[in-house]
Each structure stands twice: as structure tokens, then as C-alpha cells.
Design a protein that fits this description.
Helix content is 24%, strand content 38%. With 134 residues, it is an alpha+beta fold. Strands 1-4-5-6-3 form a 5-stranded antiparallel β-sheet. Strands 2-7 form a two-stranded antiparallel sheet. A hairpin with a 2-residue loop joins strand 5 and strand 6. The longest helix is centred in the N-terminal third of the chain and has 17 residues.
């Protein structure tokens, strides 16, 4: 199941040429991850009280520049859940035009920064979403 957020490209996202400065896409993807965890009932502000969900790996492909004022639809799709990891695919598009794609792995970690198995309730929420039941 795909989770989608809309993001208008703002002035702050752009470089002097008026196109999205590529690191801003990573911020947009992180915002999408945070909104996704809100959607499945596990807001980041709760998770980050005694742990975190950092990005451990990301591979991005930038296909077409986005410009100030464009409205991007950013799709997040959970590909695989591991003991403490979650593989995610992203697709950012404006209309039918793909602007960027990325594959990432996020990891649930404890307060010490070491991988920690997903809590049962969070794992079940992730599985429900992946099965289209959230």
C-alpha cells in the first residue's frame, strides 16, 4: 500500500537557479516518513523520547528538476520489514512526471543508538499498512 503526501515546492527549497536544491528532497522524504508514522499511530515525538528511527541508507535518482511553486506528490511504499529495519521506496512526482525516486532503509534504535527490534505494536501497525489494512 502506498502512502502519499503533497509538498508544494517553496522558496526555501530552491537554489539561486530556481530549482530544488537536491538535499531538500531528502528533507521532504524525511517529512514523509514522519507523516507516515503519524498515520500508522506512532508519532515521531513519542518514538524519539527514548529512541529514534534514523535513515541508515538511501539511494536517490533525480530525474527532472522541480521548480518553485510545483506541487509534488511524494509516495512512500514499505518494501520489507526486518527485525529492526524497514526498507522504503519513494517516488516524487508532479502530475504524471517523475521528479525523483529513492530507496531507503530506516532502523529502529534505542537511546544508545544501537538497533532495537520493532516493538510488537509498531511492527503490527507496519504489517497492517503493508497489507492494506491501515
Amino acid at each position: 500500500m502506498v502512502f502519499t503526501v503533497s509538498q508544494k515546492v517553496l522558496f526555501r527549497h530552491c537554489d539561486p537557479a530556481g530549482i530544488v536544491f537536491y538535499p531538500r528532497y531528502f528533507e521532504m522524504m524525511n517529512d514523509c516518513v514522519e507523516a507516515f508514522f503519524d498515520r500508522i499511530g506512532h508519532p515521531f515525538e513519542g518514538i524519539h523520547q527514548d529512541g529514534a528511527i534514523p535513515t541508515a541508507r538511501i539511494d536517490a535518482r533525480f530525474r527532472v528538476p522541480s521548480r518553485h511553486g510545483d506541487v509534488l506528490e511524494i509516495d512512500l511504499e514499505c518494501a520489507r520489514i526486518g527485525t529492526s529495519s524497514l526498507a522504503i521506496g519513494f517516488c516524487g512526482r508532479a502530475g504524471d512526471q517523475i521528479r525523483f525516486e529513492a530507496d531507503a532503509v530506516v532502523v529502529h534504535v534505542g537511546a544508545d543508538g544501537r538497533p532495537l527490534p520493532w516493538p510488537d505494536d509498531m511492527r503490527q501497525a507496519l504489517k497492517r499498512h503493508m497489507e492494506g489494512r491501515s
